[in-house]
Write a structure and sequence with these properties.
With about 250 residues, this protein is an alpha/beta fold. It contains nine helices and eight strands.
Length: about 250
């Protein structure tokens, strides 16, 4: 049986992204979203998640990159001297080289998770901004926190591709070894900016089992709009999924 979770990343990033995510939910194909804390529209995302508990699944979009301010205060292993998280590409290099502190990662994760729960969000799963959690040192730091928080589901490293990427596949296969014992979908795929036909191809590419596809809703930026439009104008994709016998699911279901 083929089952599909469509998850919106960046929920709460800004008003445009938040409005687009809600539009995707209400159109009927989006089943899940992960929320960013400390962003301009985070409160709007909290409120929507609280009102729609049980209707959709909501998780934490853990963030430790791209100049954002840490919630747990300045930490030397995660931040630049000005007290902000490093750019994604720099943080990735340090994560891959095991040059980050697991204690710092765990502390920041704990504070962001508590932010969601303090606002009444039922958290069902975890992923991360820039997929940083896939790196061994990060997921190693999160294991204890996930167990402590009673969370089972975490996004796996990517193993579903709209366009073949052998180099990325090698890296993701290496990272996957550190996910042993964690609960995740059978497959996970992200949409590249050049995958303009992703919705048309999705039903035929899905394999047996449970697959998560992440999208980044928004109307203002072209790349976000490309990922949004098939979910807002949902008739064509909904019909294709139904004809293919693909069932929509959410985390925790």
């Amino acid at each position: 049986m083929r089952e599909l979770i469509l998850n919106a990343d960046d929920f709460g990033w800004d008003a445009d992204t938040c409005d687009a995510t809600i539009a995707c939910f209400e159109a009927g194909l989006l089943t899940s979203a992960t929320i960013m804390t400390g962003r301009p529209a985070s409160q709007q995302a909290y409120d929507y998640a609280r009102r729609n508990r049980g209707r959709f699944s909501f998780g934490l979009h853990f963030n430790m990159v791209d100049g954002h301010l840490p919630h747990a205060g300045w930490t030397s292993s995660l931040c630049t001297p000005d007290g902000r998280f490093r750019a994604s590409h720099r943080q990735r290099v340090r994560a891959l080289a095991w040059m980050l502190s697991e204690d710092d990662i765990a502390r920041e994760f704990r504070v962001q998770l508590e932010e969601l729960r303090d606002h009444g969000v039922e958290v069902t799963h975890v992923d991360s901004h820039g997929h940083l959690h896939k790196f061994p040192i990060v997921i190693s730091a999160l294991r204890t926190e996930l167990e402590r928080a009673g969370l089972e589901w975490v996004r796996r490293p990517q193993n579903f591709y709209f366009t073949a990427n052998p180099r990325q596949a090698v890296m993701n296969n290496y990272c996957q070894r550190y996910f042993n014992g964690l609960r995740h979908t059978h497959y996970y795929g992200a949409i590249n900016h050049d995958n303009t036909d992703w919705a048309a191809r999705l039903p035929e590419l899905l394999r047996d089992g449970l697959t998560e596809i992440s999208v980044h809703p928004g109307f203002a930026e072209p790349w976000r709009r490309c990922e949004t439009e098939p979910l807002v104008s949902a008739t064509e994709l909904r019909t294709a999924l139904q004809r293919a016998g693909i069932a929509l699911r959410r985390y925790g279901q």
